[in-house]
Amino acid sequence: MARNVAVFVGSLRKESFTRKIAKALVELAPEGMSLSFVEIGQLPLYNQDDESNPPESYREFRRTVAAADAVLFVTPEYNRSIPGGLKNALDVGSRPYGQSAWDGKPGAVVSVSPGAIGGFGANHHLRQSLVFLNIPAMQQPEAYVGNVTQLLDDQGKLTNDNTRAFLAKFMQSFAAWIEAVKKS
Ligand code: FNR
Question: What is the pLDDT of residues 23-73, one digit of tens each?
Fold first, then answer.
C-alpha cells in the first residue's frame, strides 16, 4: 500500500528554489510513496479567537494533514529560522488543543539556501517545533541544500549528479523511516 506523504514548502515565491528542490524530491521518491503538495499561503494568520468558528481554510488544512501518513518539510531559511508562513501552518494544524493533526506522523526536513550554510538554522528551528508536535523526524541523513542556484538549470531541473544521488538516497531513507515509525 502506497504511503500518502504531504509535502510542505516554506516559500510562497513563484520561482522558489525550495519548491524546485521539493519537486526534484518528489520525482526521486521510490515506489510506494505517493507525494502531494499541501499549500500553506492561503491560511490566515493563526488567531486563537477564531477557534470556536475556524475559517474553512483551517478545517480543510487540518483534514488534509490528518489524512497524510507522513509529512515532508522543504524550507528556505529566513533570518536563521523558518519563514513565518510555515510556522503559521504548523500552528494551524496543531489546534484545537488536544486534536493536533500532526500528532505521531513520521516526518523529514530539507532546508534549502543560495548560501553556503544550506539553511541550517531553519532546519533546526523547524526540528524544535517538530519535537513538541510529536512528529518523529528522520535524523539521518540530514539535508542542508546549499548553493542552490548552482544546482538548477533554467527549467528548474537538477544539474548535479551528486545532488540527485543524495536526494534520491534521502527519499529512500525517508521511506524506510516511515515504515519504521509506523511499526513502532
Ligand atoms: C532570506 N534569505 C536568507 N538566506 C539564508 O541562507 N539565511 C537567512 O537567514 C536568510 N534570511 C532571509 C530573510 C528573508 C526575509 C528573505 C526574503 C530571504 C535569502 C533566501 O535564502 C533566498 O531569498 C531564497 O531564494 C529563498 O528561498 P526561495 O524563495 O527561493 O525558495
Answer: 999 999 999 999 999 999 999 999 999 999 999 999 999 999 999 999 999
Pocket perturbation via mutation, ligand 1, pick of 25, 79, 147, 151 by most ligand atoms within 8 A of CB: 79
| Residue 119 beta carbon below 6 angstroms from any ligand 1 atom | yes
If one counts the domains in the chain, the total is 1
User: The domain containing residue 163 runs over which residues?
Assistant: 3-183
d(CA 134, CA 174): 17
Q: What mean pLDDT value characterizes the chain?
A: 97
Here the CATH number for the domain that contains residue 31 is 3.40.50.360
